[in-house]
Specification:
By secondary structure, the chain is of the alpha+beta class. 31% of the residues lie in helices and 26% in strands. The longest helix has 13 residues, at 49-61.
């Protein structure tokens, strides 16, 4: 099993270009189930494990997927199936998104309860309630959710602005002739990117990026071409790595507005962050000031950057706090950071961090995707060697991470057992 070996203490300098967004690419890939025509997607991080799993899932459902570099072409190969295979769905939570397009097109779908990172239950009840509001009936059989009955356009109100549920209902609504209104919708930039793709297919989406999304669907959607947005979470991770190592790094390709919540906190902690049309330049000298954060849906502080932020705050001159409001089990990285010398006390959804002068390299292992990113940030800043095991978690969200980091001065290599 692969692991990363990091020799820490080297400041990151130069330019790192952000890859396409995994979180945007996944629902857009699944949206290709809405049409029998060809779809061409550019800027797809096609080497990521979750992207490869999604392509395999599409092929299992009847599509043909051709990937070359960052371009993915999805074609019709055979009649679509309406039962998703358990061996693929269990590995990735986003696979539940196939329910929306398949149910809307065929009136019946069977999807196993999905898997993913071990960061909490993340129930899909919000998805199911939304489908019920549009007329679906649901049953549970041997761990699979069966949804049937033709959907009709209507109005849906979420109890929480779930990104996945917003995407799933948008995907379904795009194939329903008439107007569907989604209230208390997620506002993430990835929602806007999905809306742009659905528009290019022939649906009409308005309000994406606001709490009320309106989708006027069409019974026949066409093929389309789309360029996936840059990955704001990868950008944020690189920004934090640059600051933690005392570096001077240009993070290019990302829209500064997409990481504004992080930028504001980093400036309060002492980092210099300069925005431009090309991206953001981050520089840092010395230890950061302690700054507390509380995660929240966009445009609040992203839960996906909570763990890398904690890694940086482990080096702060004083005490800071992290409050996790989105997932109930997202502090699994804290124990591994402690192996590197961090001082962290956990109190339910709150972490109290007492900064230390330096971290020390140690053998650690990733327990989830963003926790693995936190350990990587800490290892880059630490004195000595760190061996990061279970790096397959990191591979789910960061494409060619060791190559990209080596390109800006880091001493990191991948080894296999």
């Amino acid at each position: 099993m692969d692991r990363l070996v990091i020799e820490g203490g080297v400041a990151l300098r130069g330019e790192a270009r952000v890859s396409g967004s995994k979180n945007a690419a996944l629902p857009i890939l699944i949206a290709t189930l809405l049409t029998d025509e060809d779809c061409i997607l550019d800027n797809v991080p096609a080497r990521l494990r979750d992207i490869r799993l999604t392509c395999r899932l599409l092929e299992a459902l009847g599509k043909r997927v051709e990937a070359a570099g960052t371009r993915v072409v999805v074609r019709s190969d055979k009649p679509l199936k309406t039962r998703a295979p358990y061996d693929l769905v269990k590995q990735m939570r986003a696979s539940v998104l196939v329910a929306g397009p398949l149910l809307a097109r065929f009136g019946w779908v069977r999807v196993p309860i999905p898997g993913g990172c071990a960061i909490g239950m993340r129930p899909i009840d919000i998805h199911l309630k939304g489908f019920a509001d549009l007329g679906a009936r649901r049953t549970l059989d041997q761990g699979d959710i069966i949804l049937d009955s033709p959907l009709r356009p209507g109005s849906v109100r979420f109890k929480f602005p779930s990104v996945g549920a917003t995407e799933n209902l948008m995907l379904a609504a795009a194939a329903l002739p008439g107007l569907t209104v989604i209230r208390n919708a997620a506002r993430e930039p990835e929602i806007e990117d999905l809306a742009a793709f659905l528009d290019s297919m022939g649906a009409r989406v308005s309000g994406a990026g606001t709490p009320v999304v309106k989708v006027r669907g069409s019974q026949r959607l066409k093929g389309a071409r789309h360029r996936v947005m840059a990955d704001r979470i990868e950008a944020g991770t690189l920004m934090l790595a640059a600051a933690a190592t005392g570096g001077d790094l240009m993070v290019s390709g990302v829209r500064p507005a997409h990481v504004r919540a992080l930028t504001l906190k980093m400036r309060r902690a002492g980092a210099v962050v300069k925005e431009s049309a090309a991206g953001l330049r981050v520089s840092m000298r010395g230890r950061p000031r302690p700054v507390s954060v509380a995660t929240a849906p966009y445009p609040g502080f992203p839960t996906d950057l909570q763990a890398p932020w904690m890694a940086w705050m482990c080096l702060a001159r004083g005490r800071s706090r992290v409050l996790e409001n989105v997932f109930e089990k997202r502090f699994l990285h804290a124990a591994e950071l402690a192996r590197m010398g961090a001082r962290i006390a956990l109190l339910g959804r709150r972490a109290e961090i007492e900064g230390v002068e330096r971290l020390s390299g140690a053998p650690v292992m990733a327990s989830d995707l963003r926790g693995g990113a936190a350990l990587l940030v800490a290892a880059l800043a630490a004195r000595g060697r760190t061996e990061l095991a279970r790096v397959y978690h990191v591979d789910r969200g960061y494409e060619r991470v060791e190559s990209k980091l080596r390109g800006v001065g880091a001493r990191v290599r991948r080894v296999g057992r």
